[in-house]
Amino acid sequence: MANPIVPSEGILLGRARVPGHDHPRLVTVRDGDVIDITSRTAPTARDIAEMDDPADYVGTTMGPVVGSLDRLLANSWSGKTNPAEPSLLSPIDLQAVKAAGVTFVVSLLERVIEEQARGDKARSEALRKDILGLIGTDLSQLVPGSETAMKVKETLIARGVWSQYLEVGIGPDAEIFTKCQPMASVGYGADVGILPISEWNNPEPEVAMVVNSRGTIVGATLGNDVNLRDVEGRSALLLGKAKDNNASASLGPFIRLFDGTFTLETVKQADIALNVTGEDGFELTGVSNMSQISRSPEALVSSAIGRHHQYPDGFVLYLGTMFAPVKDRGGAGKGFTHKTGDVVSISTPSLGTLSNTVRLATEAAPWTYGASHLLRDLARAGLL
């Protein structure tokens, strides 16, 4: 029976903590086993992404068996990890971690509502109805930066509902921001963190592009761009506080590298499913399709890298989400917000399932292993 967490086909690249090694190991999956492919040729995920043909390298490189895939997945859950056995980590290492915002019409409208509500979730439902009534246009049909989009912009300004979120949603320039520092993302089974001050927050299920220093997209993975709606709603200048916190960026379970059967076109047609299950019995589900994105993955990558901005170690780019949960939790009109202990699962058949448990950022495992630690450990192991 196929494992729903990891696709049964394709060339997969990940990282694992393996007892007996001071540094994370690069791994792939073959016939239900996790294989260690760490070498001096490519000691980091960044090095593999920089190759001319990453999929061919990962698909042909031999190495020892770390353990069964099922066993590693089971041992990767926070609070249930046996340190004497291997477990999965985020599949990236030295790459920058960036994110695109407001790339789907549903999330665009919700960002406008957040701004107008000034972080007060009690006002959001009434504002939602008012703004939808004022717009009177299907924004999903607009091409950002087009002449038609600029006319809609003028209309909205005249009606007094123009917003900085509408600017990046239908204007000429995409929103690209830093989600977290290199080495700070968490992987499958880890806790994801929200700030204790937040009372209105949600998961953001997304596909993330893996891009090398030349701007070539070499693969994709799943991501949860954890968001604090009340913090960002108070002011867009608080975006860093709303987005970049301990354990606030999850990626995984593996990078699927592009090859003859898995391409960027596969990603563009993917259905992304979300499931949130709470300890209180609450359940939230939803599905969105990448075909509804307003800016193509290539356009978003081009907004991030070029003559205007370089990434010597490459980067990972969250593509944005169209899923903005509004299902009431805890009473009519209260909307959705996380509770600690929520299990969030994001899935699509071609990339598998990324699952994490929601904790306070102050209670999730602290980030203590950075790029300097990795490089020192690799040097001591003779891999640099």
Written account of the structure:
The chain has helices at residues 45-49, 54-60, 69-74, 105-117, 124-135, 147-159, 164-170, 229-234, 239-243, 264-268, 297-304, 371-380, and strands at residues 11-17, 25-30, 33-36, 65-68, 87-89, 96-101, 175-180, 191-194, 201-202, 205-211, 217-225, 227-228, 249-257, 271-277, 283-289, 315-318, 343-348, 352-360. By secondary structure, it is an alpha+beta fold. Strands 1, 2, 3, 4, 5, 6, 7, 10, 11, 13 and 16 form an eleven-stranded mixed beta sheet that branches. The chain has a five-stranded mixed beta sheet with strand order 8-18-17-14-15, with no helix packed on it. A two-stranded antiparallel sheet has the order 9-12. Helix 4 crosses helix 5 and helix 4 (105-117) runs antiparallel to helix 7 (164-170). The longest helix is centred in the first third of the chain and has 13 residues, at 105-117. 49% of the residues are buried.
